[in-house]
């Protein structure tokens, strides 16, 4: 472990220079790596992950990116994937067997929910759900087959917060693996391993890239678990491409300053919306009105860049608001430099039934705002003009 601060590590934690003495990391666009002789090749295949063999297994750019995330999260090891969903799927697939059971928060990313409901049951892996606002529901769901306790905090799209320390204690008591999707917080804001998480997953597509350009995913945590996930991935092929790894590693150099500004803007937008006559409800972790404000303050350094709002007038008013925006983008992504507004019920979470949507806190009029890095006055102006119609 280094004694340097987060920002310094993000910039200075870099792979060894080549013979060209480049200052910033080169891109290793190579599918495979060569060996001096048969003995060196044999050794590389027997030691596993000791050196680069083939870019489906590892690549220098992928390793640099992963090492940074490992450092940022205070983890032992990590592995990087082509997308966040590849990271989520590979984690479960590598660690679970037929007959195993998952206990998960009900409000999780839409595709993760689809894994639980549509695909895992095909392999006799069942999932039970708890309401993130009622953590006392968790313990009664645990059975002798339960292997993984899973949650996101803050959640997508409702920005609910769960007490990570509480989850860590439950996981310890029942000997479960605690897996946290830390995508909305980033390791700059929150480090779940401190609270007892065994594995932390990220969609690097979001704030880690931060500019809406590349997709990526990463899992970090305990070495022996990461090793299983690595071996699964090495054989099934969801590895992160060298180019995307290179972009992501570069993006992490500015994660701290970007996230600071995202959160500063988001808090101002949230405060503005809270007093707006056309808004029914605003949820943002660092607003005192957030139901889990105290927990958010305990485990998060900043409130994140996502705001959930309910426009007065429900579905129709929400749609009118989206249609009236002139600058903010309508897009499914989040954590971009550009402010993005989404209507989860008809897009990202449309595969859930309306009962499932409501149970996950997705009301018909819910609008998710991913606050970007434009000048906050311009963001507020666009939102205000769209609300006033
Ligand atoms: C986007 C997202 C994912 C999936 O990531 P992709 O990179 O789009 O595959 C998983 N979890 C959360 C919370 C997300 O926001």
Could you give a quick summary of the protein structure above?
The protein is an alpha/beta fold and 389 residues long. Helix content is 40%, strand content 15%. The chain is built from 15 helices and twelve strands.
Task: Provide a descriptive summary of the structure in words.
With 389 residues, the protein is α/β, with parallel strands linked by helices. The protein has two domains: 247 residues, 3-Layer(aba) Sandwich (Aspartate Aminotransferase, domain 2); 134 residues, Alpha-Beta Complex (Aspartate Aminotransferase, domain 1). The chain is built from 15 helices and twelve strands. A seven-stranded mixed β-sheet has the order 1-7-6-5-4-2-3, with helices on both faces. It has a five-stranded mixed β-sheet with strand order 8-9-12-11-10. β4, α7 and β5 form a beta-alpha-beta unit. The radius of gyration is 21 Å and the shape is globular. The protein starts with 5 loop residues before the first helix and ends with a helix. Bound molecules: pyridoxal-5'-phosphate (PLP).
Overall body shape: globular
Radius of gyration: 21 Å
Based on secondary structure, the structural category is alpha/beta
Number of strands: 12
* Small molecules in complex: pyridoxal-5'-phosphate
CATH fold naming of the largest domain: Aspartate Aminotransferase, domain 2
If classified by CATH, what would the architecture of the largest domain be? 3-Layer(aba) Sandwich
Give the terminus-to-terminus CA distance: 54 Å
Q: In percent, how much strand structure appears in the residues?
A: 5-15%
């Amino acid at each position: 472990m280094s004694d340097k601060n987060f920002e310094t590590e993000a910039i200075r934690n870099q792979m060894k220079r080549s013979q060209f003495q480049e200052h910033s990391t080169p891109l290793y666009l190579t599918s495979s790596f060569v060996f001096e002789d048969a003995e060196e090749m044999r050794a590389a295949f027997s030691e596993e992950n000791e050196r680069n063999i083939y870019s489906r297994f590892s690549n220098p750019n992928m390793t640099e990116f992963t090492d940074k995330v490992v450092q940022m999260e205070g983890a032992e090891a990590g592995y990087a994937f082509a997308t966040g969903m590849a990271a989520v799927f590979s984690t479960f697939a590598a660690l679970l067997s037929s007959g195993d059971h998952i206990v998960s928060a009900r409000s999780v990313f839409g595709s993760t929910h689809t894994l639980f409901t549509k695909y895992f049951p095909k392999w006799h892996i069942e999932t039970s759900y708890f309401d993130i606002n009622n953590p006392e529901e968790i313990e009664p769901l645990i059975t002798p087959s339960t292997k993984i306790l899973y949650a996101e905090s803050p959640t997508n799209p409702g920005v609910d917060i769960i007490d990570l320390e509480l989850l860590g204690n439950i996981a310890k008591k029942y000997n479960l693996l605690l897996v946290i999707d830390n995508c909305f917080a980033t390791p700059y804001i929150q480090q779940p391993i401190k609270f007892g998480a065994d594995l932390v997953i990220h969609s690097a597509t979001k704030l880690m890239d931060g500019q809406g350009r590349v997709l990526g995913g990463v899992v970090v945590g305990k070495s022996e678990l990461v090793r299983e996930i690595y071996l699964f991935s090495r054989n099934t092929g969801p590895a992160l491409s060298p180019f995307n790894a290179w972009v992501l590693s570069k993006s992490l150099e500015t994660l701290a300053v970007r996230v600071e500004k995202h959160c500063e803007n988001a808090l101002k937008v949230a405060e503005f919306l809270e007093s707006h006559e056309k808004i029914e409800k605003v949820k943002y972790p660092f607003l005192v009105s957030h139901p889990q404000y105290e927990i958010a303050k305990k485990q998060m350094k900043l409130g994140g860049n996502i705001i959930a709002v309910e426009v007065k007038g429900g579905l129709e008013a929400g749609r009118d608001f989206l249609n009236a925006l002139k600058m903010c983008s309508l897009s499914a992504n989040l954590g971009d430099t550009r402010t993005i507004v989404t209507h989860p019920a008809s897009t990202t979470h449309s595969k859930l039934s309306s009962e499932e949507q409501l149970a996950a806190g997705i009301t018909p009029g819910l609008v998710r705002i991913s606050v970007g890095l434009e000048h906050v006055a311009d963001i507020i102006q666009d939102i205000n003009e769209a609300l006033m119609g």
